Amino acid sequence: MYSLDQIPQTVFMPPPTQLARPPLENTHSRPRWQQELAQAIRRPELLLRALEIDNHDLFRHKPNFEMLVPQSYVARIRKSDPRDPLLLQVLPQHGETVLSSGYAADPVGDLAAMASPGLIHKYQGRVLLLLTGACAIHCRYCFRQHFPYSANVRRTRWDDWLATIRADSSIHEVIFSGGDPLNLDDARLAELALQLAEIPHLRTLRIHSRLPVVLPSRVTEELLSWLTGTRLRLVMVVHANHPQEIDGEVAGALRRIKAAGVLLLNQSVLLRAINDSPETLAALSYALFEADTLPYYLHLLDRVQGARHFEVPEDEALGLMQALRARLPGYLLPRLVKEQAGEQGKTPI
User: Fold this and answer.
1) How far is it, in rounded angstroms, from Cα 173 to Cα 166?
2) Biggest alpha carbon distance in the chain?
3) Count of domains for the chain
4) Same domain flag for 118 and 76
5) Lowest mean pLDDT: which of 75-79, 207-211, 331-335, 345-349?
6) What are phi and psi of 294, to 5 degrees?
7) Which residues contact 40 (CB under 8 A, 6 or more apart)?
8) pTM for this entry
9) How far apart are CA 3 and CA 60, in angstroms?
10) Residue 114 host element (H or E)
């Protein structure tokens, strides 16, 4: 075993601070969600203090991947419980320092599929745009936690992306990703959506975002306006792993997105000690359904360096799915999949 600190800088590249952290000036003139994001907790000891947990041996004091947790998410974590499933998703732990065989800095082959900086053309008919390296929360199992965002995020114009998409009539769907694309302000996102809608062979705009779950105040009238303001069909894939994440405010935000006419789906990651039981996964599916969101994918862990302690083996995952089928109607059963570098789509398990 080795320490992650021993990985050469060319391989291990945490998202730069300037991409992961919004500026803090003039916070009172910003929308509520941006103010909440500026007030997120960034130090493990402060998070544990807020949760009335004294055992500081739980976490790594100097994480390789910066901690970031909004207060609205902290409010859903049970106090005095060091094994809370939401806490385990965000607290830097000592297992992150272990360098494990079979785990990589780029586990799904994003860099090899990069057609141009920030534009990933991995699957037929679809391209993925990395709009930002910033997120509203830093999940400790994130498969892009080592991604070199500084070289692959366009901060000003997107002309090269648009030219590439215009020139390839086989592309019918564009996916906004990151980081988290909803970390950008609505004016910028609306501008790009309108330019994409002018490309005749595009039919669908898909947005992958965890913000409606971790920061439900992000679902504003401005967001809903541009989501539904073009001819493109809209799909939003949110990311919840545990039913405890879906409180009343989150459910309300998700229902507003669905009511606007957006197809709303959820993808989860199967995580050790967090959601690796049929009872938890079934409760998650029902909580999503109550929030007008359909379960979509249940991913096996992407084998990113530093996340081995989260992995649930494939044979165990298959057993969980068999038990889940006995508890859920088919329309609430997510598809168990894994992503493999170089494959033409998700691999069903």
Assistant:
1) 12
2) 58
3) 2
4) no
5) 345-349
6) -95, 135
7) 68, 69, 70, 71, 136, 137
8) 0.90
9) 12
10) strand 114-116
Ramachandran bin of 120, using left for φ above 0, alpha for ψ from -120 to 50, beta for the remaining angles: beta
Q: Based on the fold, state whether residues 150 and 298 are members of the same structural domain.
A: yes
The DSSP line for 145-200 is: TT--GGGT--SS--HHHHHHHHH-TT--EEEEESS-GGGS-HHHHHHHHHHHHTST
- Taking only the tens place, the pLDDT of each residue in 170-183 is 999 999 999 999 99
Q: Do 129 and 242 have their domain in common?
A: yes
Q: Give the number of other CB atoms < 10 A from CB of residue 226.
A: 18
Per the structure, the complete domain to which residue 176 belongs is given by: 111-348
Shared domain check, 314 and 175: yes
Among residues 37, 70, 99, which one ends one of the domains? 99
Rounded (10°) CA dihedral 154, 157, 162, 163: -100
Concatenating the DSSP letter of every residue in 188-214 gives HHHHHHHHHHTSTT--EEEEE-SHHHH
The answer on 201 and 328 residing in a single domain is yes
Whether the link from the prior residue into 118 is cis, omega within 30° of 0, is no
Residue 180 located in a structural domain:
yes
Question: How does pLDDT run across 318-327, given as a tens digit for each residue?
Answer: 999 999 999 9
DSSP-derived letter for residue 343 is -
